[in-house]
Specification:
The protein has 202 residues and is α/β, with parallel strands linked by helices. 36% of the residues lie in helices and 24% in strands. The protein has two domains: 101 residues, Rossmann fold (3-Layer(aba) Sandwich); 87 residues, no CATH class. The protein has nine helices and eight strands. Strands 2-3-1-4 form a four-stranded mixed sheet. A four-stranded mixed sheet has the order 5-6-7-8.
Length: 202
């Protein structure tokens, strides 16, 4: 994931599991999830008790921990904001893993604590309505510095196999794609430009 890539470049990185309803990063990194940021936010544990070293150099993790009865309330506390502020003194990069936008308000609220917001869009899977929420928030100024990452893009042709990611920068002002094949790059770029232009006009 993005946190791993930053760490591999030598940047001291920490990944916070802030999807408190459907935790997943503990499975991605094969770590214990019986304790995590929930325990820290409810004053059960100190930071050093919930912080975990990953198997990747320069990457630390704080998993979500047990599912709380009040996820949104915990994420809006001053204690989380102060934690992020303090972590900035130690880490080059802080990645906040949040719930999908459009399902709950957590991701949009947490965006105010971030310098940049990246929405992961799965090709032929992410619902149009979810992106319309982002579009609306951007136009009203509630979101800024927004980027998109398009995944699960696949191209298959005669004797050709390609997998790639597309990135949109500046929200609705162009995009480019990246894959193993130059022709895929052009095709994906054109599709992304049309895709984001449509939402920018709504």
């Amino acid at each position: 994931n993005i946190a791993s890539l930053y760490a591999m470049t030598g940047m001291k990185t920490i990944l916070l599991g802030l999807d408190l309803r459907k935790q997943k990063i503990f499975g991605d990194f094969n770590i214990d999830n019986t304790k995590g940021i929930v325990n820290y936010l409810i004053d059960e544990m100190e930071l050093d008790e919930v912080l975990t070293k990953s198997h990747i150099e320069n990457l630390d993790l704080i998993p979500s921990g047990p599912v709380p009865p009040n996820p949104s309330e915990l994420l809006m506390t001053d204690k989380l904001q102060n934690l992020i502020k303090n972590l900035r003194q130690t880490y080059d990069i802080i990645v906040l893993d949040t719930p999908p936008v459009g399902l709950v308000t957590d991701a949009l609220e947490l965006s105010h604590a971030a310098d940049a917001t990246i929405f992961v869009v799965r090709l032929d899977y992410t619902k149009k309505g979810m992106l319309q929420v982002v579009n609306s928030k951007y136009k009203t100024g509630e979101l800024s510095n927004v980027s998109f990452l398009l995944n699960f893009y696949k191209h298959r042709g005669p004797n050709k196999y390609g997998y790639g990611y597309g990135y949109g920068y500046g929200y609705g002002y162009g995009a480019y794609g990246d894959s193993y094949l130059e022709n895929d790059h052009k095709s994906l770029s054109r599709r992304l430009k049309d895709f984001f232009r449509k939402f920018n006009q709504n």
